[in-house]
Write a structure and sequence with these properties.
alpha+beta; Chitinase A, domain 3; two-stranded antiparallel ribbon
């Protein structure tokens, strides 16, 4: 986090803790004005106040004054509506939370007005930050306005479900037994016997390890299966009940031969079972495509060139 962000967070936390109480020099209340001690200033900067806007809605009401500027509840409420769902709920239901939110909002405006009067608004770095913030707000507004036009039809949902049906499947499940040969020679002997038709039970003998747990490819539920390569896992779960695997090796170098004693095949989930998931994923992919197309269009219309080779060349070299 950059230094400016850290400072901003620190200020907000300070305001959240301090402004919960009536501190000397401030008087929070329904009709009490902030008592500011007289200060001698060598020069005054004439800052034009924003026009005093009377509330359009008769139910609106005045909540604060900053010099000639009047702050109505409708202004605060517009800001609060942009909060996430949980913070918005706090604003709507918690009296103390709403008061603290409003106090921080008013304090930020007062601090900004003070900064303007002290000439900080003319600082080059401040101007650059303001311009950067403006660009970010405009870019976000453009994107949200385009995304607000997105409509997902029932036909789109059905087509997406059909095209991605494998994503919405209940994976095949198996119950397995296995034997763990001592070495490669022992494993080759066992496999040869199995290939000649000898039963797994007889081949494994007392070395067999039994399990009654159902296992699937994405949830093996066994340290032995977890250590297999993706290719071996895929081959194992492709076996039908009554079949044995080839010799498989886990990441620790241990050898295994598996026997599938029961299997439940892959099962497709219906659209109604996964409708919310399908809608969410379709919307996310649609939005991503719109944003990508919008950026590409902006690059073309604004004649953008990024000198990537130059950027890479000028990067500091990593020390080996």
């Amino acid at each position: 986090m950059c230094r400016r962000s850290v400072l901003f967070v620190a200020v907000c936390l300070f305001l959240a803790s301090v402004l919960c109480f009536e501190t000397p020099g401030f008087a929070w209340g329904k009709s009490r004005k902030a008592e500011v001690p007289e200060q001698k200033t060598e020069a005054k900067v004439d800052v034009k106040a924003e026009p005093q806007k009377e509330p359009v809605d008769e139910s609106d009401y005045l909540i604060a004054e900053i010099g000639p500027r009047k702050i109505y509840f409708s202004e605060i409420n517009r800001v609060a509506q942009k909060l996430n769902r949980f913070l918005k709920e706090n604003f709507e239901t918690s009296q103390q939370w709403r008061l603290n939110f409003i106090r921080q909002y008013i304090a930020q405006i007062a601090l900004a007005e003070m900064a303007e009067k002290e000439g900080l608004g003319q600082d080059k770095s401040v101007k650059a930050d303001i311009e950067k913030a403006k660009q970010g707000i405009l870019a976000e507004k453009l994107i949200t306005s385009k995304l607000a036009q997105v409509l997902i039809a029932e036909e789109d949902i059905q087509n997406y479900y059909i095209q991605n049906k494998n994503k919405y499947q209940i994976k095949a499940k198996v119950k397995i037994d296995y034997v763990k040969p001592k070495n490669q020679k022992d494993a080759d002997k066992m496999l040869a016997k199995l290939n000649k038709g000898q039963s797994f039970k007889r081949t494994a003998g007392r070395k067999v390890v039994k399990s009654d747990n159902w296992m699937s490819e994405d949830m093996p539920g066994s340290p032995e299966l977890d250590g297999l390569s993706p290719e071996d896992k895929k081959a194992l779960f492709a076996l039908e009940a009554g079949m044995t695997s080839q010799i498989m090796t886990n990441k620790d170098g241990d050898l295994f031969i598996f026997y599938v004693k029961e299997k439940e095949p892959v099962k497709d989930k219906t659209l109604e079972e996964v409708r919310r998931q399908v809608q969410s994923e379709l919307m996310r992919e649609t939005n991503q495509k719109i944003i990508t197309d919008l950026v590409r269009d902006a690059f073309q219309k604004e004649n953008v060139t990024i000198y990537e080779a130059e950027i890479v060349e000028k990067m500091p070299k990593k020390e080996e």
